[in-house]
Predict the 3D structure of the following.
Amino acid sequence: MEWYIVYAKFDGCKGFKAFDVNEGRQVGNLIYASLVENTEDTKTKLQKLADLNKECHLILQLRRKGKVKFQTT
């Protein structure tokens, strides 16, 4: 089983930062970032979260070893 770190970028941010899905906020330390599996269910949930936050232009990514495996639209 491989775990992926969730990263997020909001409107006005220069880059992506680690994201805590449970708290709904970016975190400064990777120890607080959400770890998830790269499954269709996870991708669907992340896309729904991004769709619910269209007004702040939330973009979510799943990364492993520095490579983006999934990004919301």
